[in-house]
Amino acid sequence: MGVLPAVTPSVPVPDFPPVRPRGARWWLPRGPRRRRRRALGAALAVMTAVLALLLPGVGGSRDGSAAGSVAGERAATAGSEPSAAPDDLVMAPVRIADAEAVRLLRPGDRVDVLAARAGPDAGAAARVVARRARVASVPGGGAAEGASAPTDGSGGALVVLSVPPATAAELAGAAAAAELAVTRW
Q1: 51, 59, 157, 166 - which has most CB atoms within 10 Å?
Q2: Which pTM does this prediction carry?
């Protein structure tokens, strides 16, 4: 086989516009489309930043050292004042009626403190005294060391909570009139 001779067409090929299958004209004006995509991307980035600031921290470790816990810390501080800064918190020692429940707690845990009256004149429902209070310490070890919670004969066990001053006053008043219990978050 050798080289084939060049064949010239007997009829010239007419001029025609290029074939653009499947609506390729949509892709021709790229400039406006790129600007729209950039504007949409910028709007989504701003919306993501705003939502990240507004939503409380989600997840994280027990000691609160996870990334993002700083923004959520102020929104999720203990007690009835969700906007309390960490500087506005006090350490409140609280005696919980169930010593075994205290053994399950570790520093950094979030708990709700419930007050329930005991005895024949007790009401049917318990009331929430503190919401999402942070456990500052569990004297005597708690679950971290596996030790039993300290008791002094009065029943229950001691736990130290980090709460706003108003919540600390409510905890003290509730402890005088009712038995306290905790629920862990």
Answers
A1: 157
A2: 0.49
